[in-house]
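Before we proceed, please read the two lines closing this message. Tell me what the C-alpha cell row says about the fold.
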Amino acid sequence: MRVFAFAFAFVVAGCGVAALDQGQAPPLPRAPEAEVLVTHSTQSHEAPVAPREVVDAEGSKLFLDAGVDGAFVLADLNSQITTVVNPEQAATGYLPASTFKIPNTLIGLETGVIPDAGFAQKWDGVKRDGPAVWNQDHDLASAMKSSVVWFYQEIARQIGAERMNHWLGAFHYGNRNTSAGIDQFWLRGAMRVTPREQVAFLRKLRARSLPVSPAHAELVERLITLEETPKYTLRAKTGLTTQDEQSVGWLVGFVDQPKGNFAFACVLLVPAKHGAKLIDLRLQLAKQLLRRAGALPDPAAQPAQPK
C-alpha cells in the first residue's frame, strides 16, 4: 500500500495557554511529502507497520515567516509515521523549562509527594516575578494551568535529588543532568532534552509503557488539557526559558481526534531580547504545523452556517 506521508514546543518557566477553537471543519489535506512505502504481510495476519520518518522541508517556511528558528516533531500514534520539520534542530537539546512539569508531576505522584489529584500548597507570601496569579495558593490543577514555578519547585525539593535522578533515568528523559540544583535544573543549567526525545517520552506516556501507575499517567494527561472541541482534544504544556543568549519556547503534548492520535513537540528559538514574542506564538505556530499535518482541523474551512 502506498501512503503519502505528511508533516510542535513568559516567563522563565512558561505559562499556561488556553483558547478554544470551535470550528467544525474537516482536517486540512495532508501536506504533500515524499512517498513512504509500507509493505504488509501476505500471511493470514498483517505484520506490524514499521516506524517511518518523513522530513517536511516545506514546513520550515512557517518558522521563517514567523521570524523564529526551531523544530517540529509529530508522531502519528496509529500509522507509526513521524514527521519532522528542521531535523537538525529536532535533534538538538534544549532546557525543558515548564514542559518538565509533565515528568515532575508523574514523579511526584509515584513518590507520594503528590498524594492525589486534590493536592494543594499554600503560597509563602513571597511575590515573584511572573503572572500575578502565581502569588496565591494553588492546587495541582491550577498550578499546571498557570505554570506556577514555586509550586513545582517545592515538589522537586520534596522529591529530592536521589529519587529525582532515579526517575529521570527510568524515564530515559533527556540527558538527566540535574547539576544546577534540585529546584532549578529544568530552568537553567546543563539539563537538555531534544524535541525528538520529548516525543519519545510522550509516546511512552500515552502507551502506558512508562514505569508509572496508569492512573497517574491518565491524571497527568487530564491536567494538561488545553482545548476540547467536538472535533479534537489538545493536551499540551508550554515552556519558556533562556539558554545561551536565546529564548527557548516549547509546546509539547497530544492531539486526539476521530482520524487519529498524535504526540508532538514544537520548539521556537529567538534572541533573548525578543523572548516575549514566544508567549503567544508557541501555541499559534504549533497549531499551524498541526493543521498542515492534518492533526488539527482548519477552522477557516468550516462550512457556512445556515441563516
In short: Residues 278-292 form the longest helix (15 residues). Confidence is low (pLDDT under 50) at residues 1-45. The radius of gyration is 19 Å. The chain has nine helices and eleven strands.
